[in-house]
Design goal:
217 residues; mainly alpha; Cytochrome Bc1 Complex, Chain D, domain 2; two-stranded antiparallel sheet; 10 helices; 50% helix; elongated
């Protein structure tokens, strides 16, 4: 009985200490500061173990088809490269400001199984900035990205660009990649496209300075 009372008191003190710490504001939640080594270990170990467990039982299709990988490169370029970077390309501003920093996916692809890459892409990871792409992409749209990622460890910058060039029109985000590659390309109706917005070549005529008859007061 005495032991049970001691354990109960210890648990109560622990709970009070945790709640007090949470309300104290002592812990720096800024994305500009790193976690302590203990927190980093706890988060990374929990994440890796969870991914490995959750990915068990996922049936992996044949990913060796080059057509499938080329179908995924445009989607990778728009879904991942901005945060994680790509061969010959650094992460953009958003990726540089994330904490923990997004990993190099060439390294992740060399260490993780295709099933694990698929699970992370589909479900995301809490409190890392990694979104659950499964909310907006079905499985058939995700597997080509995984097929491409399995090739990442072997690609340099020129090979990545060559694959991008050969994949024109392929993938769910092919139009986004084309707009990024040719932001000032002229469209069929004579208007110029600038990063997704169109501007007519002929601006509207200025109203005559002395024309007051068409203005309501």
């Amino acid at each position: 009985m005495k032991t049970l009372t001691t354990i109960t008191i210890a648990i109560a003190i622990g709970v009070i200490a945790v709640v007090g710490f949470a309300y104290s504001g002592i812990y720096d939640v800024s994305a500009g500061s790193s976690h302590s080594s203990i927190v980093n270990w706890l988060l990374s170990t929990t994440s890796h173990a969870s991914i490995e467990r959750q990915a068990k039982g996922i049936e992996v299709p044949n990913l060796s088809d080059d057509v499938l990988a080329r179908a995924g490169v445009n989607d990778f370029n728009n879904m991942y490269a901005r945060c994680h970077g790509a061969p010959g390309r650094d992460p953009e501003a958003m990726g540089q400001g994330l904490n923990p920093p997004p990993p190099d996916l060439a390294e992740s692809a060399a260490e993780m199984s295709p099933a694990e890459l698929f699970w992370v892409t589909k479900n995301g990871i809490k409190m890392t900035g990694m979104p659950a792409w499964g909310a907006t992409h079905d499985d058939d749209a995700i597997w080509p990205v995984v097929a491409f990622m399995t090739k990442l460890p072997e690609l340099n910058a020129s090979q990545y660009q060559e694959l991008m060039d050969s994949a024109g029109g392929m993938g769910h985000h092919a139009d986004d990649s084309a707009a990024e590659a040719h932001p000032h390309e002229e469209s069929a109706d004579g208007a110029h496209s600038h990063n997704g917005s169109e501007h007519s070549e002929n601006p509207p005529a200025e109203p005559a300075e002395n024309d007051h008859g068409n203005h309501e007061h």
